[in-house]
Amino acid sequence: MTLAQGGRAWLTEFIALAAIWGSSFLFMRLAVLDFGAIATAGVRVGVAALVLLPLLLRQGLGQQLLRHWRQLLVVGLLNSAIPFVCFAYALQSISTGLSSILNATVPLFGAVVAWVWLKDRPGASRALGLAVGFVGVAMLAWDKASFKPDASGQASGWAVLACLLATLCYGLAASYTKRHLTGLPSMITATGSQLGAALALVLPTIWFWPPKLPGATAWLAVLTVGVLCTGVAYVLYFRLIATVGPARALAVTFVIPVFAVLYGVLLLGEHVTGWMLLCGAVIVCGTALSAGLLKIRL
User: Positive or negative CA dihedral for 270, 272, 273, 276?
Assistant: First the structure.
């Protein structure tokens, strides 16, 4: 199927993926209230692994997964275990909209890591994008980050740093995958990373399991974020890569905050300021430049 023939189909899947990943912040917020950050992340990756593993085995990819288990464990730590814990922790003290805007810096950190680690030196336009993107992050952090605990005992500054640590881990995972797992079927990387993350988090999840049984809403939220926002979303994402290429698929990162902010306002009553929107626009423009999705002749 060519891009022209499947134009509507890939665009529908693109919007669906952005909507699904945008909702992950909402569901994590609902789950973390009862589960806590580590247990929320642990259940999420465990459920995702259970969803993806049968699909992988049905494709006859089990032996390849076993041959690369060490590298997949590292990817699972960097691409799922640590970031999911960080975002779950952050959502205890900052809004879903703010966390999703910070999540849009993933390609930004990915470009920096590739530059330092893989010597993938950006051109002038991409370098400008890095500078613009980090200015946007600094503007947002300056306005929202406070290390003084609020009435609930949480400090938003640590939450902002946790989100940025998560996006840095995503960037590290992308470069590690490019160096050590290039050529593997995407289903192996997706499933193996979730299995690796689940193994890494199983003991911490047991140790930090909430003393009070989580309620039905929290269970529904964590199961949804595991099945829909992780398992199903990975299948959609890798199908998009195969259909329209990685550059177009990567652009979903810029649409996710739109849905996340919308869900937060409509369903959680969150307040979005003009400054947040301005900083978000600066971050998205800078990230698009740094990822090469926008180009400026200098």
Answer: positive
What Å distances lie between residue 42 and 134, 195, 223, 234, CA to CA? 31, 11, 11, 17
Asked if 56 contacts 62 with a C-beta cutoff of 8 angstroms, the reply is yes
**Rg of the Cα trace of the chain?**
19
Closest to 194 in 3D by CA, of 91, 65, 67, 100: 65
- Over residues 246-263, the pLDDT tens digits come to 656 767 877 888 888 889
CA distance 53 to 191: 6
For residue 93, the Cα-to-chain-centroid distance in whole angstroms is: 18
Q: Rounded distance, CA 159 to CA 209, Å?
A: 21
Q: Which of 279, 21, 11, 37 is nearest to 159 (CA)?
A: 37
Residue 138: other Cβ atoms inside 10 A: 13
Residue count (the chain): 298
Q: Which of these, 231, 190, 250, lies nearest to 20 by C-alpha position?
A: 231
Query: pLDDT, tens digit, for every residue of 101-130?
Result: 888 888 778 778 888 887 877 778 878 887
d(CA 194, CA 189): 9
Predicted structure pTM score: 0.86
Amino acid sitting at position 203: L
| β strands within 2-72, DSSP E | none
Residue 231 has, within 13 A of its CA and on its CB side, a CA count of 22
Output the pLDDT for position 185: 86
Both tokens assigned to 269: 């009553």
Q: What is the pLDDT of residue 105?
A: 81
Listed as ranges, residues in the chain with pLDDT below 70 are 1-8, 143-155, 242, 245-248, 250, 291-294, 298
